[in-house]
Amino acid sequence: MRVLVTGGCGFIGSNVVDAYIEKGYDVAIIDNLSTGKQENKNEKARLYVEDICKDGIEEVFKKERPDIVNHHAAQISVPLSVQDPLFDAEVNIKGIIRLLLLCNKYNVKKFIFSSTGGAIYGDADVVPTGEDYVPEPASPYAIAKLSSEKYIRFFYGQYGLRYTILRYSNVYGPRQIPHGEAGVVAIFTEKLLDGVLPTLNHFPGEPQGMIRDYCYVKDIAMANILATEKDTVGIFNIGTGKGTTTLELYRLVLKTLRSKGVGIPQAFDEPKRDMARPGDIKVSTLNPGKAKIELGWEAGYTVEMGLSETVDWYLNKR
To answer: What phi and psi, each to the nearest 5 degrees, are found at residue 129?
Structure first.
């Protein structure tokens, strides 16, 4: 089966490509390498350095004739979406419309979309939050993801393009870049390795920071494999269902680094603190029950297990 992965040289996308290759799929990648890296490319995948916001991607569809399109190319930063909502919409809304039109034109069988559960629900009253909760997106990034979901469902109803939407919680793991709120594991790890005291963002009176559902990237990749293998159409939360405060996460990263022989001074036991940024929400954890029942997916990694592998990767690349 031929799969086209957009953003396949990025953090999550490259891990998804690796999982596809391991399963024997024929994989092509579209990536403009603005945040993705050539070094992340799987040697068995074909790379087209193209931008989903430009018409040149049609040539890729003509040549590859994919059965599945897995869309991971995106503007990923919540704070940046607040600063520049027009750019966010150009990439995250217009980009996906262009892809959907091409999927319809070239008879793609299924469209898999990486959405956000970490931002789309806003400060939900129900935690962990299920897919039936009415989204209250609190940032242009989340608004664009919800809009994209609606376009996908339109193309299904109008043209029969089958889809699976995966609403990710906060993803972390090897190859993550320290960019945006979702990159907090990368930010903490790289700063600590560089001898720089990290900053913890929080709301007034809540110095422990926000609560997030941290899901390891290999679990995310497996969700994409299952979404590809199953004929299921729908929206699925992909997370652990468990919340971790930013302070707890910081201490776990610190503990993991020290357990691997990294000498970090006692003065780093507590991070610096600063106020929450525009677009931040207080609590976000996802109920993954639907994905377990319909996709057969559940998280296999605890935060401790995932951080151990992640820290190993950062240490090995230095």
So the answer is: -95, 135
Cα–Cα dist 103/158, whole Å: 13
DSSP 302-314: -HHHHHHHHHHHH
Q: Which of 20, 141, 214, 301 is catalytic?
A: 141
**Structure confidence by residue, pLDDT tens digits, 139-158:** 999 999 999 999 999 999 99
172 as an active site residue: the answer is: no
CB-based contact 171:217 (threshold 8 Å): yes
Q: What is the largest CA-CA distance in the chain?
A: 60
Query: Does 181 have pLDDT greater than 80?
Result: no
The amino acid sitting at 19 is A
Nearest 10 degrees: Cα torsion 242, 248, 251, 256? 0
Q: Residue 178's pLDDT is what?
A: 83
> Which tokens in the block code for residue 289?
């029950």
In the chain, where are the structural domains located?
2-172+216-240
Superfamily of domain 2-172+216-240: NAD(P)-binding Rossmann-like Domain (3.40.50.720)
Q: How far is CA 32 from each of CA 8, 55, 63, 109, rounded to the nearest angstrom?
A: 10, 13, 18, 24
Cα–Cα distance for residue pair 233/225, rounded to 1 Å: 14
**Alpha-carbon distance 15 to 11, whole Å?**
7
DSSP assigned state of 130: P
Whether residue 146 contacts residue 137, with contact meaning beta carbons closer than 8 Å, is answered with: yes
Q: Which residues of 252-270 are buried (b: 16+ CB within 10 A; e: fewer)?
A: bbbebbeeeeeebeeebee
Calculate the alpha carbon distances from 126 to 39, 123, 129 in Å: 41, 9, 5
pTM of the model: 0.95
